[in-house]
Design brief:
Order of helices and strands: EHEHEHEHHEHEEHEEEHEEHEEHH
Number of strands: 14
Distance between the termini: 38 Å
CATH class of one domain: Alpha Beta
Strand order of the largest sheet: 3-2-1-4-5-6-11
Radius of gyration: 19 Å
Length: 338
C-alpha cells in the first residue's frame, strides 16, 4: 500500500516514514527542503534498509500538486506534516503561515476528494486549545481563540478537514493534536535538525550544551506554575511517529467511528522549562547556561494531555520518559557535532 508523507524529511515526518516502512508500507515523500535536507533519506535507509520514493516539491504550487497525483494515482493514504511550525515566528510572519499551512492543505484535500476512498492523517497541535481551563486537556476541551497565527492555522486546518469530510463520503480523516515532540531515533541516524536558530526548546538546550549557543533564554518565571516557568507535555518522537501509523491503520481497516476523528497525542504529564533543563543536566552531566528573560508573545502557561481516548481507541500509549527522550536528543546532538 502506497502512502504519501508530506514533509517526510522533517523531524516528525522522517521518524514516521521509518515506522511506516517497518510496518510494510511503501512511502512516497514530498518535501521542499525549506527546513530539512535530502541527507535525511540516508538515515531512513540506514534504519529500515529501504529508500522511500522522494519528490522535491513545493505544495504551494497547485499545478505541481495536481501533476504529482496524476503520476502517483495509487496513493491510498496521506500523512500531512508539511507546514511552518514556530509560534514566535508566526507572530512576526502571519501571512507566510497562512499561505504555507492553509493553502497547501486545500490543494491536497482537493486531490483526495476526487478519489473513491482515501485516508488522511493531519498533523495538528495542542495549540488549538489555547490556554485550556483545566488540566489535563481532553479532546472535549473547547477550542479557544488562538494565541498565535500558527495555532490559528491548525484550528482552521481542522475545520477545513471536518467540513470536507462532511461532503466527501470516501474521505476518512484523523487529526492528531500533539503536544511537544522531542528526541531522536535510538539509532541516532535521524533526529531534529533545525535550520538556523532553533524555535523549539529542546534543540536550543542541546545546542547550548554543545557550545553552539552561548546561553538559553527562559521566557518568564512568573507564571502560576510550581517554579514559575511554562509547563508543556514532552513526547518522544518515536512514540509520536507510532501514533501516526496506528491512526492510519485504523482508517484503512475501517475501524473509525466517524469519518473525522480527533485524538490527543502526549504523555499525560506536564514538565516545566526548568524541569526540562534539569533533565538535560542529569542525562548529559553538564551544567546548562541559561537566564530568565521576559515572557514571549503567544506563549500559554500550561498544556498537557489527557490521552485516555488515544489509549483506548487507538491502542496507543507513550512509552518513553522525559529523561529517555532527552538522552536521545543529546546523543543526536553529539553525533552531528562530532
Amino acid at each position: 500500500m502506497r502512502i504519501l508523507v508530506t514533509g517526510g524529511l522533517g523531524f516528525i515526518g522522517s521518524h514516521t516514514v521509518v515506522e511506516l516502512q517497518n510496518e510494510g508500507f511503501e512511502v512516497v515523500i514530498i518535501d521542499d527542503c525549506s527546513n530539512s535536507s535530502e541527507e535525511v533519506l540516508e538515515g531512513i535507509t540506514a534504519i529500515t534498509g529501504k529508500t522511500p520514493i522522494f519528490e522535491r516539491l513545493d505544495l504551494k504550487e497547485k499545478a505541481a500538486v495536481e501533476e504529482f497525483f496524476k503520476k502517483y494515482e495509487d496513493i491510498e493514504g496521506v500523512i500531512h506534516f508539511a507546514a511552518s511550525k514556530a509560534v514566535g515566528e508566526s507572530v512576526d510572519l502571519p501571512l507566510l503561515y497562512y499561505e504555507n499551512n492553509i493553502g497547501t492543505l486545500v490543494y491536497l484535500l482537493k486531490q483526495l476528494s476526487s478519489k473513491s476512498r482515501s485516508s488522511f492523517i493531519f498533523s495538528s497541535s495542542c495549540t488549538v486549545y489555547g490556554q485550556a481551563d483545566k488540566m489535563p486537556i481532553t479532546e472535549d476541551a473547547p477550542v479557544k481563540a488562538a494565541e498565535s497565527p500558527y495555532g490559528n492555522t491548525k484550528q482552521i486546518g481542522e475545520e477545513i478537514i471536518r467540513d470536507t469530510c462532511k461532503v466527501t463520503p470516501g474521505l476518512n480523516a484523523i487529526a492528531l493534536r500533539y503536544f511537544n515532540p522531542m528526541g531522536a531515533h535510538p539509532s541516532v541516524e535521524i533526529g531534529e535538525l533545525p535550520i538556523g536558530v532553533p524555535q523549539n526548546l529542546i534543540p536550543f538546550i542541546t545546542q547550548t550544551g554543545a557550545g553552539l549557543r552561548e546561553q538559553l533564554s527562559v521566557f518568564g518565571d512568573d507564571y502560576p506554575t510550581t517554579d514559575g516557568t511554562c509547563v508543556r507535555d514532552y513526547i518522544y518522537v518515536v512514540d509520536l511517529a507510532k501514533a501516526h501509523v496506528v491512526a492510519l491503520q485504523r482508517l484503512i481497516a475501517g475501524n473509525n467511528k466517524t469519518n473525522y476523528e480527533v485524538f490527543n497525542v502526549g504523555t499525560g504529564k506536564g514538565s516545566t522549562v526548568l524541569e526540562v533543563i534539569q533533565s538535560f543536566e542529569k542525562v548529559s552531566g553538564k551544567k546548562l547556561n541559561y537566564k530568565i528573560v521576559d515572557r514571549r508573545p503567544g506563549d500559554i502557561t500550561s498544556a498537557y494531555a489527557d490521552t485516555t481516548l488515544a489509549n483506548n481507541e487507538l491502542g496507543w500509549k507513550a512509552r518513553y520518559s522525559l529523561d529517555e527522550a532527552m538522552k536521545s536528543a543529546w546523543d543526536w546532538e553529539q553525533k552531528i557535532r562530532s
